[in-house]
Amino acid sequence: MEVNAAFVDDVYGAVKATDVYRDFFVGKTIVIILDNAPAHSQAEDLIKNREDLEMLRLGPYSPMCNPIEGMLGSRLFLVFNADQMFDLPYGEKTERRMRLLENAADHCIGCMDLRLVNRMARHSAHAVAAAVRNESMQYGL
């Protein structure tokens, strides 16, 4: 849990160190979006001393309403690298899974730009609105 808190703290520090933040967003709240993993709620408990940091939790899992699902092509990366998860010695699966997820993020981070982020945010907003209206949705469209 301290690792997650340290990661959030590192992200917070990295955001504040950017020229964009210093030029346009000083004094504004930094928002970090977390999913519902139990480790994230514990990270929230550890990070309380930041007046300009807000951590938002996504609701119950819905891939259509989760912009992270669309931002990272990590699923495809994980599919092609799934063999790394089989036949592991006892106790190594968690560490190997973490390395695999980190590699997926490293592999996919280069394709993220403002246009893609805005597109996924818009897509997620439409999905959330449809969910609020109890409309049917098709995953992946």
UniProtKB/TrEMBL annotation:
Give the GO molecular function terms: nucleic acid binding
Write down the superkingdom of origin.
Eukaryota
| UniProt-listed InterPro entries | RNaseH_sf
List the Gene3D superfamilies hit by this protein, alphabetically.
Ribonuclease H-like superfamily/Ribonuclease H
Protein name as it appears in the record: Tc1-like transposase DDE domain-containing protein
Q: Which organism is it from?
A: Phytophthora nicotianae P1976
